[in-house]
Automatic annotation (TrEMBL):
CDD domains: HTH_XRE. Gene3D superfamilies: 5'-nuclease (3.40.50.1010), Ankyrin repeat-containing domain (1.25.40.20), lambda repressor-like DNA-binding domains (1.10.260.40). ANK repeats lie at residues 318-350. Keywords: ANK repeat, Repeat. This is Transcriptional regulator with XRE-family HTH domain.
Protein backbone atom coordinates (compact mmCIF):
# COMPACT_ATOMS: atom_id res chain seq x y z
CA UNK A 1 0.00 0.00 0.00
CA UNK A 2 1.26 3.50 -0.83
CA UNK A 3 1.60 5.41 2.46
CA UNK A 4 2.47 8.67 0.67
CA UNK A 5 -0.71 8.74 -1.42
CA UNK A 6 -2.77 8.03 1.73
CA UNK A 7 -0.93 10.81 3.53
CA UNK A 8 -1.79 13.26 0.74
CA UNK A 9 -5.44 12.13 0.80
CA UNK A 10 -5.75 12.72 4.57
CA UNK A 11 -4.05 16.12 4.33
CA UNK A 12 -6.46 17.06 1.54
CA UNK A 13 -9.48 16.02 3.66
CA UNK A 14 -8.26 18.07 6.62
CA UNK A 15 -7.42 21.16 4.57
CA UNK A 16 -10.67 21.06 2.61
CA UNK A 17 -12.53 21.18 5.93
CA UNK A 18 -10.33 24.04 7.26
CA UNK A 19 -9.23 22.09 10.32
CA UNK A 20 -5.99 22.15 12.26
CA UNK A 21 -4.37 18.84 13.17
CA UNK A 22 -5.70 19.23 16.74
CA UNK A 23 -9.26 19.85 15.52
CA UNK A 24 -9.06 17.00 13.05
CA UNK A 25 -7.73 14.65 15.76
CA UNK A 26 -10.52 15.58 18.22
CA UNK A 27 -13.20 14.84 15.59
CA UNK A 28 -11.74 11.37 15.10
CA UNK A 29 -10.96 10.72 18.78
CA UNK A 30 -7.24 10.25 18.13
CA UNK A 31 -4.15 12.15 19.23
CA UNK A 32 -2.59 15.00 17.25
CA UNK A 33 0.71 13.03 16.82
CA UNK A 34 -1.33 10.23 15.22
CA UNK A 35 -2.67 12.66 12.60
CA UNK A 36 0.84 14.02 12.12
CA UNK A 37 2.20 10.51 11.52
CA UNK A 38 -0.54 9.87 8.94
CA UNK A 39 0.32 13.05 7.06
CA UNK A 40 4.05 12.32 7.23
CA UNK A 41 3.37 8.87 5.72
CA UNK A 42 4.84 7.11 8.76
CA UNK A 43 1.73 4.95 9.11
CA UNK A 44 -1.83 4.66 7.83
CA UNK A 45 -5.14 4.67 9.76
CA UNK A 46 -6.48 1.44 11.18
CA UNK A 47 -9.74 -0.03 9.86
CA UNK A 48 -11.63 1.53 12.78
CA UNK A 49 -10.00 4.94 12.19
CA UNK A 50 -10.85 4.78 8.47
CA UNK A 51 -14.49 4.19 9.40
CA UNK A 52 -14.39 7.26 11.67
CA UNK A 53 -12.97 9.40 8.82
CA UNK A 54 -15.67 8.03 6.52
CA UNK A 55 -18.47 8.83 9.00
CA UNK A 56 -17.12 12.29 9.90
CA UNK A 57 -16.25 13.52 6.41
CA UNK A 58 -18.26 11.24 4.07
CA UNK A 59 -15.16 10.03 2.24
CA UNK A 60 -14.91 6.41 1.07
CA UNK A 61 -12.18 4.04 2.24
CA UNK A 62 -10.93 3.76 -1.34
CA UNK A 63 -10.43 7.53 -1.46
CA UNK A 64 -8.65 7.56 1.89
CA UNK A 65 -6.32 4.69 1.04
CA UNK A 66 -6.07 5.79 -2.60
CA UNK A 67 -7.04 2.35 -3.85
CA UNK A 68 -7.43 2.53 -7.60
CA UNK A 69 -10.47 0.60 -8.81
CA UNK A 70 -10.05 -1.39 -11.97
CA UNK A 71 -12.51 -0.81 -14.80
CA UNK A 72 -13.57 -3.95 -16.67
CA UNK A 73 -15.70 -4.13 -19.81
CA UNK A 74 -17.75 -7.15 -20.89
CA UNK A 75 -18.86 -6.70 -24.52
CA UNK A 76 -22.08 -7.93 -26.12
CA UNK A 77 -22.36 -9.09 -29.74
CA UNK A 78 -24.54 -6.21 -30.96
CA UNK A 79 -22.08 -3.58 -29.66
CA UNK A 80 -19.27 -5.19 -31.67
CA UNK A 81 -21.39 -5.56 -34.81
CA UNK A 82 -22.63 -1.97 -34.54
CA UNK A 83 -19.07 -0.74 -34.26
CA UNK A 84 -16.25 -3.27 -34.79
CA UNK A 85 -13.73 -0.56 -33.90
CA UNK A 86 -15.14 -0.35 -30.36
CA UNK A 87 -12.48 -2.84 -29.25
CA UNK A 88 -9.75 -0.48 -30.44
CA UNK A 89 -11.34 2.32 -28.42
CA UNK A 90 -11.53 0.18 -25.29
CA UNK A 91 -7.95 -1.01 -25.53
CA UNK A 92 -6.68 2.48 -26.30
CA UNK A 93 -8.30 3.98 -23.19
CA UNK A 94 -5.82 3.99 -20.30
CA UNK A 95 -8.60 4.15 -17.69
CA UNK A 96 -9.95 0.76 -18.82
CA UNK A 97 -8.12 -2.15 -17.20
CA UNK A 98 -9.54 -5.18 -18.96
CA UNK A 99 -11.82 -6.15 -21.85
CA UNK A 100 -13.65 -9.47 -21.65
CA UNK A 101 -15.57 -11.14 -24.47
CA UNK A 102 -17.84 -14.07 -23.47
CA UNK A 103 -17.40 -17.15 -25.66
CA UNK A 104 -21.13 -16.91 -26.48
CA UNK A 105 -20.35 -13.65 -28.28
CA UNK A 106 -17.66 -15.43 -30.30
CA UNK A 107 -20.19 -18.13 -31.25
CA UNK A 108 -22.71 -15.49 -32.35
CA UNK A 109 -20.09 -13.68 -34.41
CA UNK A 110 -19.10 -16.95 -36.07
CA UNK A 111 -22.73 -17.57 -36.97
CA UNK A 112 -23.16 -14.05 -38.34
CA UNK A 113 -19.95 -14.43 -40.32
CA UNK A 114 -21.45 -17.37 -42.20
CA UNK A 115 -25.14 -16.46 -42.31
CA UNK A 116 -25.94 -12.83 -41.46
CA UNK A 117 -23.82 -9.70 -41.26
CA UNK A 118 -20.90 -11.43 -42.92
CA UNK A 119 -18.49 -8.56 -43.48
CA UNK A 120 -18.98 -6.88 -40.09
CA UNK A 121 -18.73 -10.17 -38.23
CA UNK A 122 -15.61 -11.13 -40.17
CA UNK A 123 -14.00 -7.77 -39.37
CA UNK A 124 -14.90 -8.16 -35.69
CA UNK A 125 -13.45 -11.69 -35.54
CA UNK A 126 -10.19 -10.61 -37.18
CA UNK A 127 -9.91 -7.66 -34.78
CA UNK A 128 -10.53 -9.83 -31.70
CA UNK A 129 -8.04 -12.48 -32.80
CA UNK A 130 -5.40 -9.85 -33.50
CA UNK A 131 -5.74 -8.06 -30.17
CA UNK A 132 -5.96 -11.24 -28.09
CA UNK A 133 -2.47 -12.03 -29.40
CA UNK A 134 -1.08 -8.51 -29.04
CA UNK A 135 -2.66 -7.59 -25.66
CA UNK A 136 -3.28 -10.87 -23.78
CA UNK A 137 -3.04 -8.99 -20.46
CA UNK A 138 -5.88 -6.64 -21.41
CA UNK A 139 -8.31 -8.60 -23.59
CA UNK A 140 -9.49 -12.18 -23.18
CA UNK A 141 -12.23 -14.65 -24.12
CA UNK A 142 -14.30 -15.91 -21.17
CA UNK A 143 -15.76 -19.41 -21.06
CA UNK A 144 -18.48 -20.03 -18.45
CA UNK A 145 -19.29 -23.74 -18.12
CA UNK A 146 -22.35 -23.14 -15.94
CA UNK A 147 -24.02 -20.66 -18.30
CA UNK A 148 -27.45 -21.75 -19.51
CA UNK A 149 -30.52 -20.43 -21.33
CA UNK A 150 -30.62 -18.35 -24.50
CA UNK A 151 -27.50 -16.53 -25.66
CA UNK A 152 -28.48 -13.22 -24.05
CA UNK A 153 -28.88 -14.96 -20.70
CA UNK A 154 -25.49 -16.63 -21.09
CA UNK A 155 -23.85 -13.26 -21.75
CA UNK A 156 -25.59 -11.71 -18.72
CA UNK A 157 -24.43 -14.66 -16.61
CA UNK A 158 -20.85 -14.10 -17.78
CA UNK A 159 -21.01 -10.39 -16.88
CA UNK A 160 -22.41 -11.10 -13.39
CA UNK A 161 -19.72 -13.70 -12.74
CA UNK A 162 -17.02 -11.21 -13.72
CA UNK A 163 -18.56 -8.64 -11.34
CA UNK A 164 -18.73 -11.17 -8.48
CA UNK A 165 -15.10 -12.19 -8.95
CA UNK A 166 -13.98 -8.54 -9.05
CA UNK A 167 -15.94 -6.93 -6.23
CA UNK A 168 -13.46 -4.05 -5.93
CA UNK A 169 -13.68 -3.25 -9.64
CA UNK A 170 -16.33 -1.51 -11.70
CA UNK A 171 -17.70 -3.82 -14.39
CA UNK A 172 -19.53 -2.42 -17.41
CA UNK A 173 -21.72 -4.50 -19.72
CA UNK A 174 -21.41 -2.78 -23.12
CA UNK A 175 -24.44 -3.43 -25.33
CA UNK A 176 -26.96 -1.73 -27.59
CA UNK A 177 -29.63 -4.34 -26.80
CA UNK A 178 -32.38 -2.93 -24.54
CA UNK A 179 -32.97 -6.45 -23.19
CA UNK A 180 -29.90 -6.15 -20.97
CA UNK A 181 -30.98 -2.84 -19.42
CA UNK A 182 -34.31 -4.43 -18.39
CA UNK A 183 -32.71 -7.33 -16.53
CA UNK A 184 -32.72 -6.97 -12.76
CA UNK A 185 -29.22 -6.24 -11.48
CA UNK A 186 -28.47 -6.63 -7.78
CA UNK A 187 -24.72 -6.13 -8.07
CA UNK A 188 -23.52 -2.66 -7.11
CA UNK A 189 -20.35 -2.92 -9.19
CA UNK A 190 -22.08 -3.93 -12.45
CA UNK A 191 -23.55 -1.34 -14.82
CA UNK A 192 -25.09 -1.65 -18.29
CA UNK A 193 -23.88 0.90 -20.89
CA UNK A 194 -25.04 1.46 -24.45
CA UNK A 195 -22.69 2.96 -27.03
CA UNK A 196 -23.85 6.52 -26.34
CA UNK A 197 -23.42 6.02 -22.57
CA UNK A 198 -19.93 4.74 -23.29
CA UNK A 199 -19.07 7.85 -25.33
CA UNK A 200 -20.22 10.07 -22.45
CA UNK A 201 -18.32 8.21 -19.72
CA UNK A 202 -15.23 7.42 -21.78
CA UNK A 203 -15.09 10.18 -24.42
CA UNK A 204 -12.67 10.12 -27.36
CA UNK A 205 -10.48 13.15 -28.04
CA UNK A 206 -12.48 15.10 -25.49
CA UNK A 207 -9.70 16.79 -23.52
CA UNK A 208 -10.20 20.56 -23.38
CA UNK A 209 -13.49 20.32 -25.30
CA UNK A 210 -17.06 20.80 -24.13
CA UNK A 211 -18.93 17.55 -24.73
CA UNK A 212 -22.40 19.09 -24.73
CA UNK A 213 -21.26 21.73 -27.23
CA UNK A 214 -19.68 18.96 -29.34
CA UNK A 215 -22.97 17.09 -29.57
CA UNK A 216 -24.78 20.33 -30.40
CA UNK A 217 -22.19 21.24 -33.02
CA UNK A 218 -22.60 17.89 -34.75
CA UNK A 219 -26.40 18.14 -34.74
CA UNK A 220 -26.29 21.67 -36.18
CA UNK A 221 -23.89 20.50 -38.91
CA UNK A 222 -26.19 17.58 -39.68
CA UNK A 223 -29.19 19.91 -39.89
CA UNK A 224 -27.25 22.34 -42.09
CA UNK A 225 -27.62 25.23 -39.63
CA UNK A 226 -24.48 27.17 -40.50
CA UNK A 227 -24.72 30.02 -37.97
CA UNK A 228 -25.78 27.72 -35.12
CA UNK A 229 -22.84 25.44 -35.94
CA UNK A 230 -20.47 28.41 -35.77
CA UNK A 231 -21.83 29.35 -32.35
CA UNK A 232 -21.54 25.78 -31.03
CA UNK A 233 -17.94 25.53 -32.22
CA UNK A 234 -17.09 28.85 -30.58
CA UNK A 235 -18.40 27.47 -27.25
CA UNK A 236 -15.73 24.79 -27.01
CA UNK A 237 -17.05 22.04 -29.30
CA UNK A 238 -14.61 19.44 -30.57
CA UNK A 239 -14.35 19.81 -34.38
CA UNK A 240 -13.12 16.19 -34.53
CA UNK A 241 -15.96 14.78 -32.42
CA UNK A 242 -17.03 11.27 -33.49
CA UNK A 243 -20.78 10.81 -33.20
CA UNK A 244 -21.58 7.61 -31.24
CA UNK A 245 -24.37 6.49 -33.60
CA UNK A 246 -23.25 7.38 -37.12
CA UNK A 247 -19.52 7.20 -36.42
CA UNK A 248 -19.07 10.35 -38.52
CA UNK A 249 -17.00 13.41 -37.69
CA UNK A 250 -18.70 16.80 -38.29
CA UNK A 251 -16.59 17.24 -41.43
CA UNK A 252 -17.64 13.88 -42.86
CA UNK A 253 -21.28 14.63 -42.00
CA UNK A 254 -21.01 17.93 -43.85
CA UNK A 255 -19.58 16.09 -46.85
CA UNK A 256 -22.39 13.53 -46.74
CA UNK A 257 -24.82 16.48 -46.73
CA UNK A 258 -23.05 17.91 -49.80
CA UNK A 259 -22.87 21.17 -47.83
CA UNK A 260 -20.01 23.10 -49.44
CA UNK A 261 -20.14 26.11 -47.07
CA UNK A 262 -20.10 23.86 -44.01
CA UNK A 263 -17.30 21.70 -45.42
CA UNK A 264 -15.21 24.78 -46.14
CA UNK A 265 -15.89 26.21 -42.67
CA UNK A 266 -15.01 23.03 -40.77
CA UNK A 267 -12.07 21.98 -42.98
CA UNK A 268 -10.38 25.35 -42.52
CA UNK A 269 -10.83 25.45 -38.74
CA UNK A 270 -7.32 25.34 -37.18
CA UNK A 271 -8.13 22.38 -34.90
CA UNK A 272 -9.84 20.22 -37.53
CA UNK A 273 -8.09 17.03 -38.63
CA UNK A 274 -9.26 16.68 -42.24
CA UNK A 275 -7.82 13.16 -42.45
CA UNK A 276 -9.79 11.50 -39.63
CA UNK A 277 -11.67 8.40 -40.75
CA UNK A 278 -15.23 7.56 -39.77
CA UNK A 279 -16.03 4.65 -37.45
CA UNK A 280 -18.08 2.70 -40.00
CA UNK A 281 -17.09 -0.56 -41.72
CA UNK A 282 -14.64 0.86 -44.25
CA UNK A 283 -13.36 3.75 -42.08
CA UNK A 284 -13.03 6.31 -44.85
CA UNK A 285 -11.69 9.89 -44.57
CA UNK A 286 -13.75 12.86 -45.73
CA UNK A 287 -12.04 13.06 -49.14
CA UNK A 288 -13.05 9.47 -49.96
CA UNK A 289 -16.65 10.21 -48.95
CA UNK A 290 -16.61 13.13 -51.37
CA UNK A 291 -15.39 10.82 -54.16
CA UNK A 292 -18.14 8.30 -53.41
CA UNK A 293 -20.71 11.07 -53.77
CA UNK A 294 -19.15 12.31 -56.99
CA UNK A 295 -18.61 15.78 -55.48
CA UNK A 296 -15.54 17.24 -57.20
CA UNK A 297 -16.14 20.66 -55.63
CA UNK A 298 -15.93 19.15 -52.14
CA UNK A 299 -12.80 17.19 -53.06
CA UNK A 300 -11.11 20.42 -54.18
CA UNK A 301 -12.28 22.23 -51.04
CA UNK A 302 -10.75 19.53 -48.84
CA UNK A 303 -7.47 19.42 -50.77
CA UNK A 304 -7.18 23.21 -50.59
CA UNK A 305 -7.76 23.00 -46.81
CA UNK A 306 -4.82 20.60 -46.49
CA UNK A 307 -6.43 17.15 -46.64
CA UNK A 308 -3.96 14.40 -47.49
CA UNK A 309 -4.67 13.36 -51.07
CA UNK A 310 -3.22 9.89 -50.39
CA UNK A 311 -5.03 9.37 -47.06
CA UNK A 312 -5.84 5.67 -46.70
CA UNK A 313 -8.95 3.97 -45.36
CA UNK A 314 -8.49 2.10 -42.06
CA UNK A 315 -11.29 -0.49 -42.05
CA UNK A 316 -12.19 -3.46 -44.21
CA UNK A 317 -9.95 -3.49 -47.29
CA UNK A 318 -7.76 -0.92 -45.57
CA UNK A 319 -5.27 1.13 -47.55
CA UNK A 320 -7.85 2.35 -50.07
CA UNK A 321 -7.16 5.89 -51.30
CA UNK A 322 -9.41 8.41 -53.03
CA UNK A 323 -7.56 7.70 -56.29
CA UNK A 324 -8.22 3.96 -55.96
CA UNK A 325 -11.91 4.51 -55.23
CA UNK A 326 -12.14 6.79 -58.26
CA UNK A 327 -10.49 4.20 -60.50
CA UNK A 328 -12.67 1.38 -59.18
CA UNK A 329 -15.84 3.31 -59.98
CA UNK A 330 -14.59 4.65 -63.33
CA UNK A 331 -14.57 8.31 -62.28
CA UNK A 332 -12.02 9.47 -64.82
CA UNK A 333 -12.27 13.18 -63.97
CA UNK A 334 -11.43 12.38 -60.34
CA UNK A 335 -8.58 10.07 -61.37
CA UNK A 336 -7.15 12.82 -63.53
CA UNK A 337 -7.53 15.46 -60.81
CA UNK A 338 -5.80 13.34 -58.16
CA UNK A 339 -2.92 12.38 -60.42
CA UNK A 340 -2.40 15.98 -61.50
CA UNK A 341 -2.30 17.03 -57.85
CA UNK A 342 0.36 14.60 -56.74
CA UNK A 343 -1.50 11.41 -55.79
CA UNK A 344 0.71 8.32 -55.68
CA UNK A 345 -0.31 6.06 -58.56
CA UNK A 346 1.82 3.18 -57.24
CA UNK A 347 0.17 3.08 -53.80
CA UNK A 348 -1.21 -0.40 -52.95
CA UNK A 349 -4.11 -1.36 -50.68
CA UNK A 350 -4.38 -4.38 -48.36
CA UNK A 351 -4.91 -6.63 -51.40
CA UNK A 352 -1.85 -5.25 -53.16
CA UNK A 353 -4.07 -3.46 -55.68
CA UNK A 354 -2.97 -0.18 -57.27
CA UNK A 355 -5.49 2.19 -58.83
CA UNK A 356 -4.48 0.75 -62.23
CA UNK A 357 -5.13 -2.80 -61.07
CA UNK A 358 -8.51 -1.79 -59.66
CA UNK A 359 -9.46 -0.11 -62.92
CA UNK A 360 -8.39 -3.24 -64.85
CA UNK A 361 -10.44 -5.51 -62.60
CA UNK A 362 -13.55 -3.36 -63.08
CA UNK A 363 -12.89 -2.90 -66.84
CA UNK A 364 -12.75 0.89 -66.51
CA UNK A 365 -11.10 1.44 -69.90
CA UNK A 366 -10.71 5.23 -69.81
CA UNK A 367 -9.16 5.11 -66.31
CA UNK A 368 -6.75 2.35 -67.36
CA UNK A 369 -5.70 4.37 -70.39
CA UNK A 370 -4.96 7.42 -68.23
CA UNK A 371 -3.26 5.54 -65.36
CA UNK A 372 -1.10 3.16 -67.39
CA UNK A 373 1.66 5.67 -68.29
CA UNK A 374 1.77 6.94 -64.69
CA UNK A 375 1.97 3.57 -62.94
CA UNK A 376 4.66 0.94 -62.62
CA UNK A 377 2.88 -1.82 -64.52
CA UNK A 378 5.19 -4.45 -63.00
CA UNK A 379 3.56 -4.07 -59.59
CA UNK A 380 1.78 -7.27 -58.59
CA UNK A 381 -1.16 -7.78 -56.26
CA UNK A 382 -0.89 -10.22 -53.37
CA UNK A 383 -2.32 -12.79 -55.76
CA UNK A 384 0.84 -12.33 -57.81
CA UNK A 385 -0.96 -10.69 -60.74
CA UNK A 386 -0.22 -7.45 -62.61
CA UNK A 387 -2.76 -5.04 -64.06
CA UNK A 388 -2.18 -6.67 -67.46
CA UNK A 389 -2.92 -10.11 -65.99
CA UNK A 390 -6.28 -8.85 -64.72
CA UNK A 391 -6.97 -7.33 -68.14
CA UNK A 392 -6.30 -10.72 -69.74
CA UNK A 393 -8.67 -12.39 -67.26
CA UNK A 394 -11.37 -9.85 -68.13
CA UNK A 395 -11.35 -10.85 -71.83
CA UNK A 396 -11.96 -7.18 -72.62
CA UNK A 397 -10.47 -6.33 -76.01
CA UNK A 398 -10.23 -2.57 -75.31
CA UNK A 399 -8.20 -3.19 -72.17
CA UNK A 400 -5.93 -5.69 -73.90
CA UNK A 401 -5.26 -3.23 -76.70
CA UNK A 402 -4.02 -0.62 -74.19
CA UNK A 403 -1.42 -3.04 -72.85
CA UNK A 404 -0.49 -4.30 -76.31
CA UNK A 405 0.04 -0.80 -77.63
CA UNK A 406 2.30 -0.03 -74.70
Amino acid sequence: MNFESTAKAILKIRNSNNLTQDEFARKLNVSRPTVSNWELAKCIPTTEQIMRIHEAFHVSADEILQIKKNTIFVIDTCAILNRPRIINQLLGNESISQVIIPDTVISELNYQKDHGQKQLAWLAMVTIEKFCKEYPHKISILHEENASGINDQKIIFAATQVAKRNIHSTVYMLTNDVFFSLVENKLRNLEVLNLQDFEEKFPLNANCFNREASFRFFEEVKAGNFKAAQIALSKGANPNFIHPESGYTPLIQAVRNRDKSMVEFIANHPKTNCNLCDEAKYRLPAISHAVQLGEMTLVKTLVEAGADIDCQSQGKNHGNTALMISAWHGKQDFVQYFCQNGACANQQDSNGFTALIKASIKKQVSCVRFLYPLTDSRIRSFEGLTAKDYAIKSHNSELLNIFKEA
